[in-house]
Amino acid sequence: MGAVQKGMLHTCYHGKTGRVCSVTQHAVGIVVSKQVEGKSLAKRTDVHIEHVKHSKSRDSFLTRVKNTRETAQAIKGMHIRKATKYLKDVTLKKQCVPFRRYNGGVGRCAQGLDVDSLVIEHIQVNKAPKMRRRTYRAHGRINPYMSSPCHIEMILTEKEQIVPKPEEEVAQKKKDADRNGLPTKGPTGIYEKKKD
């Protein structure tokens, strides 16, 4: 089932609201619920393309209102084919969605992290607000039936390679300083010039 088609012509479709199920060049297939003997049956009907004015789609309880709002504003007014191509390019990271209102702390570009070298640096679990339900017991009693959800946050970082400190270079620098007659630290910690 797809978008909602509202307000079809009264002469043909009795002004009912249905759901778009198929689209052809000359018509749109719509499923309309019909009441028969107290039951609601789904009836398919074709609406001629000249009768279709607009199409509405709605989904509730989506996550990330800020990201979704910015994506919606980016595709508003676009042709449907162009919008589909644009959203596919966004998922493939070829194009980006401009953040205009909720732009605090938005990353400038995606980080190319090496998945094989990622280490869990920080993980934290906090209590979330408990959700209250009830369970029915014997003799008309009611007990609480609580759920204990939680918030989890995790930070991954790339593991740094441990590089051993080179010992030979320090000795080589000391030798060069001795050869050139540059002052070096003596046993007292004071720079002394080498005497010949």
Automatic annotation (TrEMBL):
The keyword Ribosomal protein applies. The lineage of its organism: Eukaryota, Metazoa, Chordata, Craniata, Vertebrata. Residues 160-179 have a biased composition (Basic and acidic residues). GO terms for molecular function: structural constituent of ribosome. Gene3D superfamilies: Ribosomal protein L21, Ribosomal protein L22/L17. CDD domains: Ribosomal_L22. One of its GO terms (cellular component) is cytosolic large ribosomal subunit. It comes from Sciurus carolinensis (Eastern gray squirrel). Pfam families: Ribosomal_L21e, Ribosomal_L22. It comes from the Eukaryota. PROSITE patterns: RIBOSOMAL_L22 (PS00464). This is Large ribosomal subunit protein uL22. Keywords: Ribonucleoprotein, Ribosomal protein. GO terms for biological process: cytoplasmic translation. Belongs to the universal ribosomal protein uL22 family. Belongs to the eukaryotic ribosomal protein eL21 family. The keyword Ribosomal protein applies.
